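Onboarding guide, step 5: your first structure request.
Type a short instruction followed by the sequence, for example:

Predict the 3D structure of this protein.
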Amino acid sequence: MGDRPWAMRGTRGPGRWIAGLATLAIALAAMAEEVPAPAAPAVPPPPANGAEAGHLGEVVVEAPEPRYVAPTRRDRIGRIWAPVLINDKGPFRLVLDTGATNSAVTAQVAAALGIPLTNQNNVMLRGVTGSRTVPTIPIDSLVVGDLELRSKRLPIVIDALGGAEGVLGTEGLQDKRIYIDFRHDKITIFRSHSERPPPGFATVPVRIEGGLLLVADIRIGSIRAKAIIDTGGQATLANVPMREALSRRVRPEDIRADEITGATLDVQTGDRVRLPALHIGDLTIRGANITVGDMFIFQHWKMTKEPALLIGMDLLGLLDTVIIDYKRHELQVLERRDSRY
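The system replies with structure tokens like these:
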């Protein structure tokens, strides 16, 4: 069967997914390495008291669409926005991206902060489909909820964020608890006190691996694999070993050609396939569609030997509430009553 065990069998018209910042599907792996550069049921929100006071409810974003979180619908992919103050200005609306090791902003944010772009202190930005050298800007502070970063540099990303102004990565989240309520358009970032899941919530144990990546064990039929939880990703992606493992379990009519455009604007091709039941922690997801292929990001993360997934917002955005507790190494999720899963 070769490298593409189901290539050209039952494929329909090509689809197109943006796996990068253009539509909030980045798996950003910005590396802090200098390189020579060319020219440039309703659950009450967590309490707001003590250390948890002064959270996002007091930082208001004006927007024609949901201000903080948007659930996945048939015609769009859910988004998680974080209202972030940078150098005490803003708030700027950044995409919460658990697959990004560094935060980043657009050139427009740099202009609003009055920080010029130069060819000094460039970094290599590594996305889903490729890499690119980009400039950085120095900032004094980045604050959202209980997350506070000081004196760091932010890479500049392409201005194609679908309304967002950058990416909020994982730095500084190791002791945090992120509460994302799609139904009520709320996001809160506060210090974790190792709280147990609220009543009715399912749990997904995760491991914290390099760069604070959230890695869960999953099962698709008899196929066991690991999956990175990627809130910045539009589409759920799988690597070549997963494609090979699925080759005898997927019907030809459930396959179509696909394209993935990454944060660096590199384009890679793949196959869009409909999965058998996917089991992750206490959750079972049925009828999910994923894109499988030899994506650059799997090579960068050295995930090319065994089946692996990046679970994106096409699946996560179908939930009612998602709590990410880095201290407990756990996702706590509430399914929607109207979910097709």
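Each response can be followed by summary notes, for example: Residues 1-58 have pLDDT under 50 and may be disordered.
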